[in-house]
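Dear support,

We are seeing what looks like truncated structure output for some complexes. This example has three components. We would appreciate it if you could run it in full and send us the complete token output so we can diff it against ours.
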Amino acid sequence: MSDIRFTKDHEYVRVEGDVGTVGISDYAQQQLGDVVFVELPAIGAKLEKGAGAAVVESVKAASDVFSPVSGEVVAVNAEVDSEPALINQDAFGRGWLMKIKLVNSGDLDGLMTQADYDAFLKTLA
Amino acid sequence: MNMQGRPTRPASANEGRRGAFTGNRALDMEEALIFESGRLDATGVDIEDPEPFASRLGGLERKGEIGLPGLTEPEAVRHYVRLSRNNYSIDAGLYPLGSCTMKHNPRLNEKMARLPGLADIHPLQPVSTVQGALELIETLARDLMTMTGMSAVAMSPKAGAHGELCGMMAIKAAIVARGEAATRKVVLAPDSAHGTNPATAAMMGFSVRAVPAGADGVVDAGSVCDALGPDVAAIMLTNPNTCGLFERDIVAIAEAVHDAGAYFYCDGANFNAIVGKTRPGDLGIDAMHINLHKTFSTPHGGGGPGAGPVVLSDRLAPFAPVPYVVRKGDALKLVEHAGDSAAFGRMSAFHGQMGMFVRALSFILSHGADGLRQASEDAVLAANYIRASLSDLMSAPFGDRPCMHEALFDDRWLKDTGLTTLDFAKAMIDEGYHPMTVYFPLVVHGAMLIEPTESEAKASLDLFIMTLRDLAMSALAGEKERFLGAPYDAPRRRLDETRAARQPVLRWTKPAPA
Amino acid sequence: MRYLPLDASDRALMLAKVGAPDIDALFADIPSEKRLSGLAMPNGMSEIEVERALARMASRNVAAGSLPFFVGAGAYRHHIPASVDHLIQRSEFLTSYTPYQPEIAQGTLQALFEFQTQVAALTGMEIANASMYDGSTASAEAMLMANRLTRRTKAVLSGGLHPQYADVAATLARLAGDTIVRMPLDATASEDIATQIDDDTSCVIVQSPDFFGNLRDLLPIADAAHAKGALLVAVFTEAVSLGAVRSPGEMGADIVVGEGQSIGNALNFGGPYLGLFATRLKNVRQMPGRLAGETVDAEGRRSFVLTLSTREQHIRREKATSNICTNSGLCALAFTIHLTLLGETGLRRLAKVNHASAVDLADRLAAVPGVSVLNRAFFNEFTIRTPRNAEALIEDLARRGVIGGAPVSRLAPDAGLDDLIVVASTELNTASDRVAYADAIAQCL
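Here is the complete output from our reference environment:
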């Protein structure tokens, strides 16, 4: 079973083996509104945890996506590049942004579990 | 007997109501694009072909069609008149866009700007033939310095953001001259700043460090001191600020900024609130742009042109860009090259927005010292009147305290209505008003920023207030339909902005044959 | 005061509602020692007085229309149909704001959409924005855009580029920490710019018709730039030329910028003008400035709206493509109305008449002993060399009632080109104007 973790900036990372799939949470897509454009990193890019990795734009807002973990980008979602609406329709599924090969599994320790994140969202309401 | 009698009283209002075949709604006409209605061989300008001559285009003649349809004059006039009728305008109604200062545009100013001696002169004709133009620029420059208490003014910036760039270039040049370019790389700005501030700082290679505003909506000197350091080049602060409040710590902030070896840039977008009441130079500001299209009422024209002269303190005056006017005896000269001076360079070709200078000077002469001060006072009074008349229904983020020239509300009062600031704004359109500025400043959730200006009569303000009260009570009473679908009666209903951004269509293209 | 509707009793009632004892209570946040008792300026004037004051200043200028006038060099005197100025003064265009509420701004938005399409067609590009401040700032913005697109920071500026355009770009580049290479002024279009392009070059900026009036074939320059991964930024200052000569898009330009003043806009002593900015669709996300786009409203009707605004400063802030906010809306409206009145047919004829006018003047001046015309190919502007200092000669000509052009040394005092004058002749210059010029210069030499 995969292990999903969240940041306070509403990125998620779902880890399988040493590869994490990164996207923005369903809450984040709701707050952002209709996504109209996505700027993805280059494959092979090396990201530090917390560094700007992608940009997700709606009509009235541009939001940086910060990498929740350190590692190398091994894949980006070409489908979301041509059809950004996937992020609104299926943020945790077909709306993923990139896959990062983790260099430090300890990066996950500081992130929220699903239960933590759900509780965190309640504090924002 | 005369058989030409006809009904002269209306039947009941909704009898026989049908959508029109044309899509028109009486005076509100649908209008095709010129690319659909025009013809490549039609023209509204009679030009004779020249006598045959030998071309000197050197083989670079255009071949093939450009794709520019033409219209004859009657068709063109009708096209643009019909388009114009789909626009709201300050001439037609109260236009309460906060931060944008939609005040009356006196037609005298338009007339003056069209005098042949001011409109039909070329920027590069001999200086001896444009002494009156230089006198006009010098006069306006002197007036701007008098109003701001500053010692120099760069006239050439083309708009507010261009003025900001000019001011930040002067600051960068001053820092370079001090040999501190490598160390002073940070600009302080509050989160409430206009987007142009951080964008301008970034163009000059500065990084932006946020200064928090307090719970009362203003920046306190203590938080500026905390953010200052040897790496700071400047602070960019809007005053009155984007929340419509005067930065009351401004003198202490200026002292702290100067003590830290940095410069104080003031975004002068809201200067119209304080003309004749205080002078930025006396407050310790080093550079400030003045939006002539806001404070001095040059028309906004659907988005421009603007003009953004920048006043400078003694500390920055030596770095002002070219060109500038100097007086030598009776003659005025135009300095167009930096030469051996410290001038940082040039902002644009030629000498600035002369057409806007004429209008602004006409406005300033018309108002004079007494009128300018009265205009500031009336603008501030009108905003406070609106604030005081609505604050029992709508929530204000910084409590019940006086504002400057704009009244700011947030969306807390809409919390249980299921409606947003945008819904409220769109319902104003059906009532015949342009909405206020919404969702700005960003630091206030669901912001509604109302700037009535000094141009409204009390009866106009009262009607506006009553309308907003009616709408607010309707929203609080749960009459959601009025808002969610609004506007109903405008030339257009709400637009699909998502589609516009996801599948951009940025020009007309010939449809593929069916 | 005629512009202020509130009177003393209104103000008293409003203060009472606000709960303030007097107006100064509303300004209480201004430190008391910094408050002003009054401005050291005269009090307000009536309309009559203002008209007198400004008419006096206007009378001290020589209006271009009052004598034979041949100055171009970046701003051109053309006829403007009467309906243009009438239409742009309609309240709904003149006194509206940026169309941020599209439901009640379709007039401005549709006009901008038509403007963008016209500019794209004229320049031979795929898309154009809703205008910049002027040609010089548009050129500098094009340089910054090329830097972003190529992730390089060195621009090469042709010696045919308007010297003040080059000054604007140089000022920005120097203070922003970018690099520019300025080719020496090139009055005869003989520079070899291709050799200056290397692997660090983001763009070459080339003007045609250039500052001296020369038409330049951009195609070889585009090829040389593209071979090194650099872009060609094509600049023009005389938009009417595009009615006669090949568009920069056809010649391989990646970004086309220009001054649009000469269509629909008066000389105005240098401003307000409008910058034209066009490029290929693939570059749109790095383009500065506003864009109007097509969409539908809730009832499915075709509508227009400002779009792709996440590029802009009010959303992207320090990461925006530019800090630009204001455009030249009303000047762009004048441009699009004039161009609609001209249409393809009118623009081509206007261009032909301009070219004919300049060819005739060039031939007449070249026939004057001592005058030589430097240009091989030109549109409505060319450069002459005379034995005399150009600035002194222009003053002499002015005393004889002819404004004979722009001395190159006024714009580039250190270039050693003190004997060159840039001369423009348009449809407004009659044959007798041109004869008068030739006669006057013959007397001055």
